[in-house]
Amino acid sequence: MRWYVSIGAVLLAGALAGGDVASLAAPGPKQPGQHAADKVAEDAKPNVDIELILAVDVSYSMDMDELAIQREGYAQAIVSKEFLQALKSGPNGKISITYFEWAASSDQKIIIPWRLIDGPETADAVANEIMKTPIRRASRTSISGAIYFAMPLFNEDPYHGLRRVIDISGDGPNNNGAPVTGARDEALSKGIVINGLPIMVKEPSYSTMDIDNLDWYYEDCVIGGPGSFVVSIKDREKFKEAIRTKLLLEVAGRTPERRIVPVSDKEPRVSCMIGEKIWQDRWGR
Q1: Which CATH number covers residue 116?
Q2: What pTM value is reported for the model?
Q3: Are the CB atoms for 96 and 114 separated by under 8 Å?
Q4: H/E segment holding residue 154
Q5: What confidence tens digit (pLDDT) does each residue in 239-248 have?
Q6: Strand order, beta sheet including 51-57
Q7: How many domains does the chain have?
Q8: Which one of 67, 110, 204, 206 has the fewest beta carbons within 10 angstroms of its own beta carbon?
Q9: How far apart are CA 237 and CA 233, in angstroms?
Q10: How far apart are CA 165 and CA 186, in angstroms?
Q11: 27: in domain
């Protein structure tokens, strides 16, 4: 199911935003008393409305123009009046955010470590930091690698969010690393929500390993959790508008809730292994 919303609807929802508390499961076995210590440490952190990880695709299938527009889109969205208005609508009026770029399963680079955004000044600082980093490109596409890299970052956040969200943008399916569905379901089991920004501004091409209906792939294989959603970019001219819409939705936290359904419990419209199959057919490995 896809959700289509206007900017106006997002702002109205943001005014009503309350946010839900996500239950967080800690990884690995616990020693006696460790659960209590972890809870005390978590409770001692200052509260924010959302801990938001922006995971941004920089694989070679993205051309330099797209990468530049993507960077500008995030920077401009964070300082927009609509974003700042949505920010004030939350119970705490602040969020924590980190931004990293990814390609292959072993290739992730943090561009913005955890930062607090609580108004125009901190928003400007984050936007400037995004824009000053040189643009890069890298090989392969590992959405699963991005998810696995993102999950432990929440433990490093000095703030405690009412919600924890990984926001993944990309222009192709997973073709490297572990299958995406296992990473997705592990994140959901920890109370993390995954949203998606599938980039579909070019005609699918065998040479770039693009697929038809990338939005379906993201909906059925990548995103999940209460209120999870996809905002598709199908027009280069609306690239920045789509990024702003997505961030407004995440800050407002008022998208319709859906039941968490592991991928194994439903039949995806697009094979969740399609990227791996295309790579195997093309390269034989």
Answers
A1: 3.40.50.410
A2: 0.81
A3: yes
A4: helix 153-156
A5: 899 999 999 9
A6: 108-117, 95-102, 51-57, 164-170, 193-198
A7: 1
A8: 206
A9: 9
A10: 13
A11: no
Query: Distance between CA 279 and CA 98 in Å, rounded?
Result: 31
Q: Tokens 């959901």 map to which residue?
A: 188
Exposed / middle / buried, residue 57 (Cβ in 10 Å: 0-12, 13-18, 19+): buried
Burial class (CB in 10 A: 0-12, 13-18, 19+), 185: middle
Is residue 62 domain-resident?
Answer: yes
Instruction: Using DSSP, state whether 138 is helix, strand or coil.
Output: strand
Place of tokens 């990984």: 166
Domain span holding position 153: 7-19+44-283
How confident is the model over 187-235, as pLDDT tens digits? 999 999 999 999 988 776 655 567 778 999 999 999 999 989 999 998 8
Closest by CA position to 18, among listed 253, 192, 226, 191: 253
Q: Is residue 1 part of a domain?
A: no
Does 25 map to a domain? Answer: no
